[in-house]
Amino acid sequence: MKWSEISILTTNEAIEPISNILHESGASGVVIEDPAELVKEREDMFGEIYQLNPDDYPTDGVMVKAYLPVNSFLGETVDEIKQGITNLVTYDIDIGENKVEISEVNEEEWATAWKKYYHPVKISDKFTIVPTWEDYTPVHSDELIIELDPGMAFGTGTHPTTVMCIQALERIVKEHDTVIDVGTGSGVLSIASALLAADQVRAYDLDEVAVRSARLNVKLNKVQDTVSVDANNLLNGVTGQADVIVANILAEIILRFTEDAYELVKPGGYFITSGIIQPKKQEVRDSLEAAGFQIEEIMVMEDWVAIIAVKPE
Ligand SMILES: C[S@@+](CC[C@H](N)C(=O)[O-])C[C@H]1O[C@@H](n2cnc3c(N)ncnc32)[C@H](O)[C@@H]1O
Predict the structure, then answer these.
(1) Is residue 173 within 6 Å of ligand 1 at its C-beta?
(2) Residue 102 burial by CB count (10 A; 0-12/13-18/19+): exposed, middle or buried?
(3) Does pTM surpass 0.90?
Protein backbone atom coordinates (compact mmCIF):
# COMPACT_ATOMS: atom_id res chain seq x y z
CA MET A 1 0.00 0.00 0.00
CA LYS A 2 1.22 3.52 -0.79
CA TRP A 3 0.80 6.42 1.61
CA SER A 4 0.63 10.18 1.26
CA GLU A 5 1.91 12.51 3.92
CA ILE A 6 -0.30 15.52 4.54
CA SER A 7 1.32 18.36 6.48
CA ILE A 8 -0.57 21.41 7.67
CA LEU A 9 1.16 24.51 9.02
CA THR A 10 -1.19 26.01 11.57
CA THR A 11 -1.54 27.46 15.09
CA ASN A 12 -1.57 25.89 18.57
CA GLU A 13 -5.25 26.71 18.84
CA ALA A 14 -6.10 24.70 15.72
CA ILE A 15 -4.12 21.54 16.60
CA GLU A 16 -6.93 19.67 18.28
CA PRO A 17 -9.71 20.36 15.76
CA ILE A 18 -7.35 19.65 12.85
CA SER A 19 -6.17 16.40 14.48
CA ASN A 20 -9.82 15.41 14.85
CA ILE A 21 -10.53 16.21 11.21
CA LEU A 22 -7.54 14.06 10.21
CA HIS A 23 -8.54 11.16 12.46
CA GLU A 24 -12.10 11.30 11.18
CA SER A 25 -10.80 11.16 7.60
CA GLY A 26 -9.06 7.88 8.38
CA ALA A 27 -5.56 9.34 8.70
CA SER A 28 -2.90 7.33 10.54
CA GLY A 29 -0.05 8.47 12.75
CA VAL A 30 -1.17 12.05 13.37
CA VAL A 31 1.80 13.89 14.86
CA ILE A 32 2.19 17.45 16.06
CA GLU A 33 5.53 19.02 15.53
CA ASP A 34 5.56 21.44 18.43
CA PRO A 35 7.39 20.33 21.54
CA ALA A 36 5.59 22.43 24.14
CA GLU A 37 2.11 21.48 22.97
CA LEU A 38 2.92 17.84 22.52
CA VAL A 39 4.37 17.57 26.02
CA LYS A 40 1.34 19.34 27.50
CA GLU A 41 -1.15 17.19 25.61
CA ARG A 42 0.58 13.99 26.70
CA GLU A 43 0.94 15.20 30.28
CA ASP A 44 -2.78 16.01 30.44
CA MET A 45 -3.70 12.66 28.99
CA PHE A 46 -1.22 10.30 30.54
CA GLY A 47 0.75 12.21 33.17
CA GLU A 48 3.88 11.31 31.25
CA ILE A 49 6.68 13.52 30.06
CA TYR A 50 7.88 12.74 26.58
CA GLN A 51 11.49 13.02 25.58
CA LEU A 52 11.56 15.33 22.60
CA ASN A 53 14.42 16.58 20.56
CA PRO A 54 13.91 20.35 19.95
CA ASP A 55 15.99 20.10 16.76
CA ASP A 56 13.17 18.09 15.19
CA TYR A 57 10.69 20.94 15.32
CA PRO A 58 10.03 24.11 13.30
CA THR A 59 10.07 27.35 15.26
CA ASP A 60 7.27 29.21 13.44
CA GLY A 61 3.75 27.88 13.82
CA VAL A 62 2.90 24.27 14.40
CA MET A 63 3.03 21.49 11.87
CA VAL A 64 0.36 18.80 12.03
CA LYS A 65 1.24 15.75 9.95
CA ALA A 66 -0.60 12.58 9.15
CA TYR A 67 -0.60 9.73 6.66
CA LEU A 68 -3.40 8.85 4.26
CA PRO A 69 -3.59 5.66 2.20
CA VAL A 70 -3.27 6.33 -1.54
CA ASN A 71 -6.53 5.06 -3.06
CA SER A 72 -9.19 6.31 -5.44
CA PHE A 73 -10.71 8.48 -2.65
CA LEU A 74 -7.48 10.31 -1.81
CA GLY A 75 -8.30 13.50 -3.77
CA GLU A 76 -11.76 13.62 -2.26
CA THR A 77 -10.41 13.00 1.26
CA VAL A 78 -7.82 15.77 0.93
CA ASP A 79 -10.50 18.19 -0.34
CA GLU A 80 -12.71 17.29 2.64
CA ILE A 81 -9.81 17.85 5.06
CA LYS A 82 -9.02 21.23 3.49
CA GLN A 83 -12.68 22.24 3.60
CA GLY A 84 -13.00 21.06 7.23
CA ILE A 85 -9.99 23.15 8.23
CA THR A 86 -11.25 26.24 6.40
CA ASN A 87 -14.63 25.81 8.15
CA LEU A 88 -12.89 26.13 11.53
CA VAL A 89 -12.71 29.88 10.89
CA THR A 90 -16.49 30.05 11.28
CA TYR A 91 -15.98 28.80 14.88
CA ASP A 92 -13.51 31.68 15.46
CA ILE A 93 -10.53 29.33 15.44
CA ASP A 94 -7.31 30.91 14.19
CA ILE A 95 -5.93 28.48 11.58
CA GLY A 96 -2.87 30.64 10.91
CA GLU A 97 -1.03 30.26 7.64
CA ASN A 98 -2.93 27.04 6.87
CA LYS A 99 -0.36 25.85 4.35
CA VAL A 100 -1.33 22.33 3.29
CA GLU A 101 1.19 20.11 1.52
CA ILE A 102 0.78 16.61 0.19
CA SER A 103 3.68 14.33 -0.66
CA GLU A 104 3.82 10.67 -1.47
CA VAL A 105 5.96 8.49 0.78
CA ASN A 106 7.08 4.95 0.16
CA GLU A 107 6.38 2.13 2.61
CA GLU A 108 9.77 2.27 4.31
CA GLU A 109 9.57 6.05 4.77
CA TRP A 110 6.06 5.80 6.20
CA ALA A 111 6.99 3.03 8.57
CA THR A 112 9.95 4.99 9.94
CA ALA A 113 8.83 8.62 9.53
CA TRP A 114 6.99 8.92 12.81
CA LYS A 115 9.24 6.64 14.84
CA LYS A 116 11.07 9.61 16.28
CA TYR A 117 7.85 10.88 17.87
CA TYR A 118 6.75 7.56 19.31
CA HIS A 119 8.06 6.68 22.77
CA PRO A 120 6.97 4.42 25.67
CA VAL A 121 3.63 5.54 27.04
CA LYS A 122 1.62 4.37 30.03
CA ILE A 123 -1.94 4.12 28.73
CA SER A 124 -3.80 2.55 31.65
CA ASP A 125 -3.32 1.39 35.24
CA LYS A 126 -1.54 -1.74 34.10
CA PHE A 127 -0.33 -1.23 30.53
CA THR A 128 2.63 0.58 29.04
CA ILE A 129 3.14 0.48 25.28
CA VAL A 130 6.75 0.33 24.25
CA PRO A 131 7.91 0.74 20.64
CA THR A 132 10.23 -2.11 19.70
CA TRP A 133 13.13 0.23 19.01
CA GLU A 134 13.10 1.71 22.55
CA ASP A 135 14.72 0.33 25.72
CA TYR A 136 12.34 0.49 28.63
CA THR A 137 12.62 -0.60 32.27
CA PRO A 138 9.25 -1.11 33.98
CA VAL A 139 8.59 1.36 36.80
CA HIS A 140 6.31 -1.01 38.76
CA SER A 141 6.64 -4.76 39.23
CA ASP A 142 3.03 -5.40 38.12
CA GLU A 143 3.27 -3.22 34.98
CA LEU A 144 2.25 -5.04 31.79
CA ILE A 145 4.32 -4.17 28.73
CA ILE A 146 3.09 -4.37 25.15
CA GLU A 147 5.93 -4.17 22.68
CA LEU A 148 4.69 -2.78 19.41
CA ASP A 149 5.95 -2.17 15.92
CA PRO A 150 2.84 -0.95 14.12
CA GLY A 151 4.67 -0.96 10.78
CA MET A 152 2.09 -0.04 8.18
CA ALA A 153 -0.94 -1.01 10.28
CA PHE A 154 -3.07 1.12 12.58
CA GLY A 155 -1.86 1.93 15.18
CA THR A 156 0.67 2.91 17.74
CA GLY A 157 -1.63 1.88 20.59
CA THR A 158 -1.93 5.46 21.79
CA HIS A 159 -4.97 6.60 19.81
CA PRO A 160 -7.81 7.53 22.24
CA THR A 161 -10.01 4.75 20.85
CA THR A 162 -7.30 2.13 21.47
CA VAL A 163 -6.57 3.52 24.93
CA MET A 164 -10.25 3.29 25.91
CA CYS A 165 -10.50 -0.29 24.59
CA ILE A 166 -7.44 -1.32 26.59
CA GLN A 167 -8.80 0.36 29.72
CA ALA A 168 -12.10 -1.50 29.22
CA LEU A 169 -10.34 -4.85 28.58
CA GLU A 170 -8.28 -4.32 31.71
CA ARG A 171 -11.46 -4.14 33.77
CA ILE A 172 -13.38 -6.88 31.99
CA VAL A 173 -11.09 -9.69 30.79
CA LYS A 174 -10.73 -12.47 33.36
CA GLU A 175 -8.37 -15.42 33.54
CA HIS A 176 -9.33 -18.19 31.07
CA ASP A 177 -11.62 -15.93 28.99
CA THR A 178 -12.02 -16.28 25.24
CA VAL A 179 -11.70 -12.96 23.38
CA ILE A 180 -12.42 -12.01 19.76
CA ASP A 181 -10.75 -8.86 18.37
CA VAL A 182 -12.43 -7.53 15.20
CA GLY A 183 -10.18 -5.17 13.19
CA THR A 184 -7.02 -6.01 15.07
CA GLY A 185 -4.67 -3.63 13.19
CA SER A 186 -1.28 -3.93 14.90
CA GLY A 187 -2.76 -6.59 17.22
CA VAL A 188 -2.52 -4.37 20.27
CA LEU A 189 -5.92 -5.28 21.80
CA SER A 190 -5.34 -9.01 21.31
CA ILE A 191 -1.93 -8.81 22.94
CA ALA A 192 -3.45 -6.86 25.85
CA SER A 193 -6.14 -9.55 26.25
CA ALA A 194 -3.52 -12.32 26.27
CA LEU A 195 -1.44 -10.47 28.87
CA LEU A 196 -4.61 -10.17 30.97
CA ALA A 197 -4.58 -13.99 31.07
CA ALA A 198 -7.26 -14.77 28.47
CA ASP A 199 -6.96 -18.42 27.41
CA GLN A 200 -7.75 -17.88 23.76
CA VAL A 201 -7.79 -14.74 21.60
CA ARG A 202 -8.90 -14.72 17.97
CA ALA A 203 -7.89 -11.63 15.99
CA TYR A 204 -9.30 -10.69 12.57
CA ASP A 205 -8.58 -7.98 10.04
CA LEU A 206 -9.61 -7.39 6.46
CA ASP A 207 -6.26 -5.84 5.60
CA GLU A 208 -3.38 -8.25 4.82
CA VAL A 209 -0.85 -5.67 5.99
CA ALA A 210 -2.57 -5.55 9.38
CA VAL A 211 -2.67 -9.36 9.57
CA ARG A 212 1.10 -9.52 8.95
CA SER A 213 1.79 -6.72 11.41
CA ALA A 214 -0.41 -8.28 14.11
CA ARG A 215 1.25 -11.69 13.68
CA LEU A 216 4.65 -10.05 14.06
CA ASN A 217 3.64 -8.18 17.21
CA VAL A 218 1.98 -11.28 18.68
CA LYS A 219 5.30 -13.16 18.33
CA LEU A 220 7.25 -10.19 19.66
CA ASN A 221 5.14 -10.31 22.81
CA LYS A 222 5.41 -14.11 23.01
CA VAL A 223 1.65 -14.65 23.08
CA GLN A 224 1.42 -16.73 19.89
CA ASP A 225 0.16 -19.74 21.86
CA THR A 226 -2.87 -17.71 22.92
CA VAL A 227 -3.52 -15.38 19.96
CA SER A 228 -4.41 -16.46 16.41
CA VAL A 229 -4.53 -13.82 13.65
CA ASP A 230 -6.52 -14.35 10.45
CA ALA A 231 -7.74 -12.32 7.51
CA ASN A 232 -11.51 -12.01 7.76
CA ASN A 233 -14.33 -9.60 7.04
CA LEU A 234 -15.84 -8.68 10.44
CA LEU A 235 -17.36 -11.83 12.02
CA ASN A 236 -18.37 -13.48 8.75
CA GLY A 237 -18.11 -17.24 9.13
CA VAL A 238 -16.73 -16.99 12.68
CA THR A 239 -18.09 -19.64 15.04
CA GLY A 240 -17.52 -20.44 18.70
CA GLN A 241 -18.66 -18.21 21.54
CA ALA A 242 -16.55 -15.63 23.33
CA ASP A 243 -16.62 -14.02 26.76
CA VAL A 244 -15.55 -10.70 25.23
CA ILE A 245 -15.65 -9.25 21.73
CA VAL A 246 -13.73 -6.03 21.16
CA ALA A 247 -13.93 -3.97 17.98
CA ASN A 248 -12.23 -0.64 17.45
CA ILE A 249 -13.61 0.17 14.00
CA LEU A 250 -15.58 3.11 12.66
CA ALA A 251 -19.20 3.46 13.81
CA GLU A 252 -20.52 2.82 10.30
CA ILE A 253 -18.80 -0.58 10.31
CA ILE A 254 -19.86 -1.52 13.86
CA LEU A 255 -23.49 -1.01 12.82
CA ARG A 256 -23.07 -3.83 10.29
CA PHE A 257 -22.31 -6.58 12.81
CA THR A 258 -23.95 -5.88 16.18
CA GLU A 259 -26.30 -8.83 15.62
CA ASP A 260 -23.44 -11.20 14.72
CA ALA A 261 -21.61 -10.04 17.84
CA TYR A 262 -24.69 -10.71 19.96
CA GLU A 263 -24.86 -14.27 18.61
CA LEU A 264 -21.20 -14.96 19.43
CA VAL A 265 -21.01 -13.36 22.91
CA LYS A 266 -21.84 -15.72 25.79
CA PRO A 267 -24.70 -14.67 28.09
CA GLY A 268 -23.16 -12.33 30.66
CA GLY A 269 -20.33 -11.55 28.20
CA TYR A 270 -19.25 -8.20 26.80
CA PHE A 271 -19.05 -6.37 23.48
CA ILE A 272 -16.60 -3.44 23.67
CA THR A 273 -16.80 -1.07 20.71
CA SER A 274 -14.89 2.08 19.86
CA GLY A 275 -13.82 4.11 16.86
CA ILE A 276 -17.06 6.02 17.40
CA ILE A 277 -17.16 9.79 17.03
CA GLN A 278 -19.54 11.64 19.35
CA PRO A 279 -22.25 12.36 16.71
CA LYS A 280 -22.50 8.62 15.95
CA LYS A 281 -22.81 7.51 19.58
CA GLN A 282 -26.61 7.31 19.69
CA GLU A 283 -26.84 5.36 16.42
CA VAL A 284 -24.38 2.73 17.68
CA ARG A 285 -26.09 2.60 21.06
CA ASP A 286 -29.48 2.07 19.41
CA SER A 287 -28.07 -0.68 17.22
CA LEU A 288 -26.49 -2.48 20.21
CA GLU A 289 -29.74 -2.29 22.16
CA ALA A 290 -31.77 -3.45 19.16
CA ALA A 291 -29.50 -6.50 18.93
CA GLY A 292 -30.27 -7.31 22.59
CA PHE A 293 -27.27 -5.82 24.45
CA GLN A 294 -27.57 -3.67 27.57
CA ILE A 295 -25.31 -0.63 27.72
CA GLU A 296 -23.09 -0.86 30.75
CA GLU A 297 -20.84 2.15 30.25
CA ILE A 298 -20.03 4.86 27.76
CA MET A 299 -16.44 6.11 27.87
CA VAL A 300 -15.35 9.41 26.29
CA MET A 301 -11.84 10.59 25.41
CA GLU A 302 -11.34 13.73 23.35
CA ASP A 303 -14.06 13.50 20.65
CA TRP A 304 -14.13 9.71 20.70
CA VAL A 305 -16.51 7.32 22.41
CA ALA A 306 -16.22 3.68 23.50
CA ILE A 307 -19.27 1.68 24.50
CA ILE A 308 -19.21 -1.30 26.86
CA ALA A 309 -22.29 -3.45 26.22
CA VAL A 310 -23.28 -6.64 28.03
CA LYS A 311 -25.43 -9.57 26.86
CA PRO A 312 -28.00 -10.29 29.57
CA GLU A 313 -27.67 -13.70 31.31
C1 LIG B 1 -9.08 1.80 13.93
S2 LIG B 1 -8.17 0.37 13.47
C3 LIG B 1 -8.04 -0.45 15.06
C4 LIG B 1 -6.76 -1.20 15.26
C5 LIG B 1 -6.54 -1.78 16.65
N6 LIG B 1 -7.58 -2.74 17.00
C7 LIG B 1 -6.50 -0.68 17.69
O8 LIG B 1 -7.39 -0.61 18.53
O9 LIG B 1 -5.55 0.12 17.70
C10 LIG B 1 -9.42 -0.53 12.63
C11 LIG B 1 -8.95 -1.80 11.95
O12 LIG B 1 -10.10 -2.44 11.42
C13 LIG B 1 -9.78 -3.04 10.18
N14 LIG B 1 -11.02 -3.23 9.43
C15 LIG B 1 -11.74 -2.30 8.75
N16 LIG B 1 -12.83 -2.88 8.18
C17 LIG B 1 -12.80 -4.20 8.50
C18 LIG B 1 -13.64 -5.31 8.22
N19 LIG B 1 -14.72 -5.18 7.46
N20 LIG B 1 -13.29 -6.53 8.72
C21 LIG B 1 -12.18 -6.67 9.48
N22 LIG B 1 -11.34 -5.64 9.79
C23 LIG B 1 -11.65 -4.43 9.31
C24 LIG B 1 -8.80 -2.06 9.56
O25 LIG B 1 -7.99 -2.72 8.58
C26 LIG B 1 -7.99 -1.60 10.77
O27 LIG B 1 -6.83 -2.38 10.96
Answers:
(1) no
(2) middle
(3) no
